[in-house]
């Protein structure tokens, strides 16, 4: 009887261990499948956006898998030229540098810019993607789905923002520019720490890190992820530059036609 009882215990233990191994394999497979989100570093799109200021350039990429609606919205506003002439109105050392809603910039917006800038994007959060120095975090009002075009670049860790604000990108170059901006004289206005003179985004442009021989993405100018297309065949340096600037000239001409008198 004792033998049978011990045998039953061993069988139960064996079943438990097998179940544990099975669940571990499933979790490992899920983790591998979602590594671009659950890993320490979400995958950046191939696009790099550059904000030029008198203190230096700030370059960043976007997280289309973490925040697809927000990343596409911001990228469209950038392609439309909506951030040119906008300002960083808030610079709180060790916390954030925040740019204004483009609707408040001094340069007038055309109809297409205004339509996109007035569109709200939903809250998009992933538990493992955290507010640390260098990430881009969408601004909003009390309504979590009220993001439009104002966003912050984190200057330090801010865990209290996690799961409450959309993270949609990361600075790839120019943290030294942000450190210079942190040293500017500021004033307190309510909860905001603001530079005495707002930092103007003098110019904005974008480029792609690498281009495949399929020019469809260049024409459509949609966000692309590394590995989405076969990159084994590369443009030559001249062809790459021609394709990139040809694609951007289309947007530039379209903007000129809307903004300038005929």
Describe the structure.
With 262 residues, the chain is an alpha+beta fold. It is 35% helix and 21% strand. The chain is built from seven helices and eleven strands. Strands 10-3-4-6-5-7-2-1-11 form a nine-stranded antiparallel β-sheet. A two-stranded antiparallel sheet has the order 8-9.
Write a compact overview of the structure shown.
This protein is α+β, with helices and mostly antiparallel strands and 262 residues long. The protein has helices spanning 2-33, 35-38, 68-79, 111-117, 175-182, 216-220, 237-259; strands at 47-53, 56-62, 87-92, 96-99, 135-138, 151-154, 167-173, 186-189, 192-195, 199-200, 203-208.
Features:
7 helices; alpha+beta; 11 strands; two-stranded antiparallel ribbon; 35% helix; 9-stranded antiparallel beta sheet; 262 residues
Structural class by sheet pairing and helices? alpha+beta
**Fraction of residues in helices?**
25-40%
Q: What is the CA-atom radius of gyration, in angstroms?
A: 24 Å
Placed side by side, the strands forming the largest sheet appear as 10-3-4-6-5-7-2-1-11
Largest sheet: 9 strands, antiparallel
What string, H for helix and E for strand, traces the elements in order? HHEEHEEHEEEHEEEEHH
Number of strands: 11
Determine the mean pLDDT. Answer: 80
Report strand %. Answer: 15-25%
Net shape: globular
**Unreliable stretches covering 5 or more consecutive residues:** 21-39, 212-216, 229-235
Q: Helical segment tally?
A: 7
Ends distance = 99 Å
């Amino acid at each position: 009887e004792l033998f049978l009882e011990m045998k039953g215990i061993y069988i139960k233990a064996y079943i438990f261990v097998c179940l544990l191994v099975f669940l571990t394999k499933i979790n490992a497979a899920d983790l591998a499948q979602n590594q671009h989100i659950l890993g320490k570093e979400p995958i950046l799109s191939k696009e790099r956006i550059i904000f030029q200021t008198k203190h230096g350039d700030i370059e960043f990429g976007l997280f289309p898998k973490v925040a697809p609606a927000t990343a596409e919205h911001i990228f469209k506003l950038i392609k439309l030229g909506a951030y040119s002439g906008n300002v960083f109105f808030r610079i709180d050392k060790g916390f954030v540098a925040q740019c204004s809603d483009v609707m408040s910039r001094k340069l007038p917006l055309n109809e297409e810019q205004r339509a996109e800038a007035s569109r709200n994007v939903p809250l998009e959060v992933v538990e493992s993607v955290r507010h640390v120095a260098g990430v881009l975090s969408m601004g909003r009002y009390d309504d979590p789905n009220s993001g439009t075009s104002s966003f912050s670049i984190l200057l330090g860790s801010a865990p209290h923002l996690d799961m409450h604000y959309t993270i949609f990108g990361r600075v790839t170059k120019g943290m030294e520019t942000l450190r210079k901006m942190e040293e500017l004289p500021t004033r307190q206005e309510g909860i905001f720490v603001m530079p005495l003179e707002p930092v103007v985004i003098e110019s904005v442009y974008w480029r792609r890190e690498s281009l495949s021989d399929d020019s469809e993405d260049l024409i459509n100018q949609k966000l692309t992820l590394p590995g989405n297309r076969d990159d084994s065949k590369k443009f030559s340096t001249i062809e790459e530059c021609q394709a990139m600037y040809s694609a951007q000239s289309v947007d530039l001409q379209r903007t000129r036609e809307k903004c300038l008198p005929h």
